[in-house]
Specification:
Blueprint: H1 2-26, E1 29-31, E2 35-37, H2 45-74, H3 81-108
Antiparallel strand pairs: 1-2
Length: 112
């Protein structure tokens, strides 16, 4: 039961993290020698600030849910080796997905 709960938490964490990265991309955040927020002609500062806040909130939610998934999957009386491998594999996969999406948004997104 712990493993299934941990897997669902990790899946939810990855979805929340991807939504956070999407919001950062839609807010116009990219890397140009440092983090830069693009000045888009069709939005104002409030919309950009809200998009950035939602993006950061999504990434913080991803971290929190990933920690909860690790705690749920690895907690209890001595978890078996198979359960430890399953938990670390799904968490590593989530980290790889979020890191790849963040890299794509920051470095390869279309800039105005």
């Amino acid at each position: 039961m712990r493993i299934i709960g941990s897997l669902f938490l990790a899946l939810a964490a990855t979805i929340v993290g991807l939504l956070g990265v999407l919001m950062l991309g839609l807010a116009g955040v990219h890397w140009d020698g440092g983090l830069v927020v693009a000045q888009l002609s069709d939005s104002d500062d409030t919309e950009r600030a809200l998009g950035i806040a939602m993006g950061v909130g999504g990434l913080l939610g991803w971290v929190g849910l990933s920690c909860a998934a690790a705690y749920a999957g690895l907690g209890g009386q001595r978890p078996s080796r198979a359960s430890r491998i399953a938990v670390w594999t799904i968490l590593g996969l989530g980290v790889a997905i979020i890191a790849s999406a963040t890299t794509f948004v920051l470095f390869f997104s279309i800039r105005p």
